[in-house]
Amino acid sequence: MRRLLKRVVNDYLRPIRRSLRPTRHARFGGINISYRPELDGGGTHFGQDFLPFFRARGLPKQERAFEWCSGPVFIGFSLLGNGFCETLCLADINPRSVASCRNTVEVNGLRDRVSVYESNNLRNIPSSEKWNLVVSNPPHFVDEAYDGQLLAYDPQWQIHREFFMTVSKFLAPAGMIVLQENNAGSTVESFRGMIEEAGLKIVFTNGDSPALTRESIFYYIGIMRRADEPPAWAHTNIERQCGGAGWTWVRQDQASPLV
């Protein structure tokens, strides 16, 4: 009975409630985005932390970036609009998110700079794609309590595992993956084994705790192919500090060792 009630809530009641919410609008780096609020997995909020994080590291402009599990692409469009990449590739499994991406591309005249794919993980991405930078705020929780919540739930970390096993062929030489994870749902060690099994390596971590936290604390994992040499910006030592405007990332004097 409990499982049936949960299915009714997820399959019927929540969609009805979501359909009554008005469309929202956001603007990042001069790019206008119209989106349904139920498609926002945190990209309008903590996802924007990618910008000060990359600024603190001194990330140079990348030729092509990819946002995995993109949703309406708040992170990717923000990186593009703020000059962190020349072109952008996007993919999501949800056709409604893909439609939102394509609408943003059309409205902002970005067809010559942005490619959009509807894809279950990376399965429908053409082999011609090559990315210098991959970013994502993927589903953060393996706990079955999140079952039915597409933006939050990754059962047995299968979405992450498949991504790690298939992403290498899309990486340009020295291409970097930077994931934003949640310490309330994972630690770095939750992913280390599957990363290494896929022939990848962890180059850096920032903001993480070795144990699960009670509250959401977002941390970063920098990953690349095992044989590749990390770019200079991946060695930069930064730390999160709280200032008058809230938390931000500050560059330190000495380079950090590889993890």
Describe this structure in words.
The protein has 259 residues and is of the alpha/beta class. The protein has helices at residues 2-19, 50-57, 74-81, 95-107, 158-166, 189-197; strands at residues 24-28, 31-35, 62-67, 85-92, 114-118, 131-136, 171-182, 200-206, 218-225, 238-243, 246-251. The strands form three sheets. It has a seven-stranded mixed β-sheet, sandwiched between helices. A two-stranded antiparallel sheet has the order 1-2. It has a two-stranded antiparallel ribbon with strand order 10-11. Strand 4 (85-92), helix 4 and strand 5 form a beta-alpha-beta unit. It starts with a helix and ends in an 8-residue tail after the last strand.
Which descriptors apply to this entry?
single chain, 259 residues, alpha/beta, 7-stranded mixed sheet, 11 strands, disordered C terminus
Percent of residues in beta strands? 25-35%
Alpha-carbon distance between the termini? 47 Å
What is the CA-based Rg, rounded?
Answer: 18 Å
Average pLDDT score: 91
What's the arrangement of strands in the largest beta sheet?
5-4-3-6-7-9-8
Brief account:
With 259 residues, the protein is of the alpha/beta class. It has six helices and eleven strands. Strand 4, helix 4 (95-107) and strand 5 (114-118) form a beta-alpha-beta unit.
Question: SSE layout and pairings?
Answer:
Layout lengths: L1 H18 L4 E5 L2 E5 L14 H8 L4 E6 L6 H8 L3 E8 L2 H13 L6 E5 L12 E6 L21 H9 L4 E12 L6 H9 L2 E7 L11 E8 L12 E6 L2 E6 L8
Parallel strand pairs: 3-4, 3-6, 4-5, 6-7
Antiparallel strand pairs: 1-2, 7-9, 8-9, 10-11
Helix pairs in contact: 5-6
